[in-house]
Amino acid sequence: MNKGIYIATLESHSGKSMISLGLMRTLLGKMVKVGYFRPIINDVVEGERDNHIDTVLSYFDLKIPYEDTFAFTRSEVIQKTNDGKSGEIIDTIITKYKKLEDEFDFILVEGSDFSGEGSVFEFDVNVVIAKNLGIPVIIVVSGQFKSWEELLGNQQMAYRAFRDKEVQVIAMVSNKIQEDNLESAATNMRGFLPQEVDVFAIPLIDTLNNPTLKEIVKALDGTVLFGHDFLDNQTGNFGVGAMQLRNYLTTLKNESLVITPGDRADIILGALQANISSNYPRISGIILTGGLRPEESILKLIEGLSDIVPIISVQEGTFVVTNKVGAIKSNIYADSIQKIQTTISIFERYVSFDPLVEKLTNYKPQGRTPRMFQYDLVKRARQSKKHIVLPEGTDERILAAAKRLIDMDLVELTLLGGFDTIQKTVAKIALDLDFSKVNIIDPVNSPNFQDYAETFYELRKHKGVNMDMAKDRMSDVSYYGTMMIYKGHADGMVSGAAHTTQHTILPALQFIKTKPNVSVVSSVFFMCLEDRVSVFGDCAINPNPTAEELAEITISSAESASAFGIDPKIAMLSYSSGTSGKGEDVDRVREATAIVKERRPDLKIEGPIQYDAAVDISVGKSKLPGSEVAGQANVLIFPDLNTGNNTYKAVQRETGALAIGPMLQGLNKPVNDLSRGCTVADVYNTVILTAIQAQGI
Questions:
Q1: By residue range, what is the domain housing residue 138?
Q2: Positive or negative, the Cα torsion across 413, 417, 419, 424?
Q3: Residue of 295, 290, 360 lying closest to 321 (CA atoms)
Q4: H or E element: which one contains 535?
Q5: Helix, strand or coil for residue 390?
Q6: Which is the most buried residue in 49, 145, 573, 645, by most CB within 10 A?
Q7: What span, in angstroms and rounded, lies between the C-alpha atoms of 120 and 99?
Q8: Rounded CA gap, 638 and 660, in Å?
Q9: Which of 271, 309, 317, 257 is nearest to 292 (CA)?
Q10: What is the C-alpha separation between 176 and 228, in angstroms, rounded?
């Protein structure tokens, strides 16, 4: 079940706070525990807190530590992006969001505020965040100060940006619309949005749009002389008291803010008297400009009044102050209770929230991004720590990966090799490896060596193996590591950094054996592309599989995809799509597809199909219209090793994709093979895959 919603906009002061507050009230009426998260907040003065977060936590009494409610400040995001650390931004946001997801029934995620420069960059970041969190979006666009053409253009741009990243938009809100234009705003949105996207139009509410006296004091760095208890007064409009009092009184409107030089006692007293008179509208406050204050006799007179609005003294002149007041954008604060209640009331009046909440809870994320996939791998490995043996314990890459795995507390590790040799290698590469947290075994000198040799002899004596041959085998790190798994002294093995694939796999085939009803050991790579994860198989083991073997590889690959959270849509790749192609190779793929359909009718599969038709939605619709796989395949089965190995390497090199694997399929217990050109990251990821396999997937 979906557990989150992302509220996004493409501009500042769009009114998305109204949607956040209204939706939070709605969600709390439907669920027991609702969390709140802001991936990116505005920069705040040291010691202060983000206002949005404080308002939501305080008003709804949410029990969430402040530091858990956001990931980065805006300047931190810009700095990390400039340093080429965009991946780190997303990883941290996913981690913090997932922590809340584990603790709450639902999470309301509020996008950034677009303060300052770089709003286009900031909008793109919000799209990427929503994509990686795998949650639907509500887009909020302000209609204030926009023509119909500008409003529509902004809405279409925002919708396309999320749609193109395959992020589901479930609603769009036109906010701050003139009351007479609400129906037209909804009609305009409905004109370009699909029916499944809800549309709402909310009017411009002056009482929410205008600043309070508290906001004005902060913006002008003013000093409050009177009326501290009424700083939440909302301004309706403002005007300068520069004319004679008799003329100025005629300009007053309800909740007017009076701006006048501090030595204009006539305007000050006249405005205060008008405020308590039934013949004149109420005023919201008075700003005294120029750093001037009324004489003591006037101050004493004011103190004696029974009803005093806020009176604020500022240093700057009337002209500057008037312009600054006009530029103040109103916000909602934690103690602005009346404003919050008005906001929620407006939301409930104009947004049909019950159907919206039902959509949220029934939403199923489409696909998994690479960052989500890698996060889930780490989380799953940590949930049930497994013991993995690394036979090539003296290899620098193995040792560097081992440190990272141990530091993250993901697995228990055994390194095979001489302790002195491993220690010297660690010193050589200046690796701060904690030897107390890793097991090191020299096979020949280990207490289990004789027992392992005898076990191997018993298992293989029918093949002509004698005890001398058995001891020779057990002195080999690949055989020793595999025997650890067989005897239950380890849960899985990763090798191949310094050994061939055959050297790694042969011991497993000899006595680990294959699973019941499996005759072919095969492999898959998890290809982490820009915005999706695909499964490629078989790219490492079987050179020229028969149709029967290809079908078995396909079923194993689909099961691996499902085990790692990917709903398999299988493409049986060939040089031809559909029924048009002829020849032995395409016929073999066609036959394998038929076998899979017979054995696993529950699987979504298409074949034969060309690579472009499998992954490109427009090509897929053109070549195989009506297919539920074409254009959206995520499990790609290659017809032979030559095609598969070259394709995965080409995709990896040309797109910068991360290839996690190969992960072997079909063995009773997990043994995985590394490329001799593997990186530290390859070792790290393959060990995690192996640990998850060992959990019994």
A1: 4-207
A2: negative
A3: 290
A4: strand 533-537
A5: strand
A6: 573
A7: 29
A8: 17
A9: 317
A10: 31
355 within domain boundaries: no
One-letter amino acid of 680: V
Statement to judge: residues 145 and 12 lie in one domain: yes
Q: What is the DSSP letter of 195?
A: T
C-alpha distance across the termini of the chain, in Å: 21
- Kindly state whether residue 284 falls inside one of the protein's structural domains: yes
pLDDT at 366 over 80: no
Q: Return the SS3 of 533.
A: strand
Task: Evaluate the CA torsion angle 464, 466, 472, 474 in order and state its sign.
Answer: positive
Structure tokens at 203: 């009017």
Q: Across the chain, which distance is largest between two alpha carbons, in Å?
A: 118
**Per-residue pLDDT at 578 exceeds 80:** no
pLDDT digits (tens, 9 = 90+) for 291-309: 999 999 999 998 888 778 9
- Judged against a pLDDT cut of 70, whether residue 443 lies above it is answered with yes
Distances from the Cα of 205 to the Cα of 345, 347, 623, angstroms: 12, 11, 52
Q: Which residues are 238's β-sheet partners?
A: 257
Asked if residue 291 lies in contact with residue 315, where contact means CB atoms within 8 angstroms, the answer is yes
Shortest CA distance to 505 belongs to which of 488, 527, 520? 520
φ/ψ of 614, rounded to 5, equals: -75, -35
Closest CA to 443 of 473, 468, 414, 417: 417
pLDDT band at 524 (very low <50, low <70, confident <90, very high): very high
Mean pLDDT of the chain: 89
Same domain assignment for residues 173 and 29: yes
Record the tokens describing residue 120, joined without a space: 């286009």
Do 197 and 78 fall within a single domain?
Answer: yes
* 188 neighbors 148 (Cβ within 8 angstroms): yes
Name the pTM for this structure: 0.69
Torsion sign over Cα 152, 16, 21, 70: positive
- What pLDDT score was predicted for residue 548? 95
DSSP state of 40: E
Q: Which residues contact 534 (CB under 8 A, 6 or more apart)?
A: 526, 527, 615, 633, 634, 635, 636
301 falls within a domain: yes
Q: What's the residue count for the chain?
A: 697
Say how far apart CA 81 and CA 500 lie, in whole Å: 40
Residue type, 451: D
Pairwise CA distance, residues 158 & 222, whole Å: 39
Give the single-character DSSP code of 23.
Answer: H
pLDDT band at 364 (very low <50, low <70, confident <90, very high): low
- How far CA 108 is from CA of 27, 105, 122, 454, in Å, comes to 9, 10, 19, 61
Please check whether residues 234 and 294 belong to one and the same domain: yes
What residues does 212 pair with on adjacent strands? 234
Contact call for residues 472 and 452 (beta carbons, < 8 A): no
- Indicate whether 291 and 381 sit together in one domain: no
Tally the domains of the chain: 4
- Distance, CA of 54 to chain centre: 23
Residues 19 and 158 in one domain: yes
Strands (E), 290-396: 311-313, 387-390
The Cα–Cα gap between 308 and 306 comes to 6
DSSP bridge pairs for 287: 259, 312
Find the range with the poorest average confidence among 104-108, 502-506, 653-657.
Answer: 653-657
The CATH number of the domain holding residue 300 is 3.40.1390.20
CA distance 368 to 339: 40
Please spell the DSSP secondary structure of 229-245, one letter per residue. GGTTPBPSEEEE--S-H
Computed from CA positions of residues 672, 676, 680, 681, in that sequence, does the dihedral angle turn out positive or negative? negative
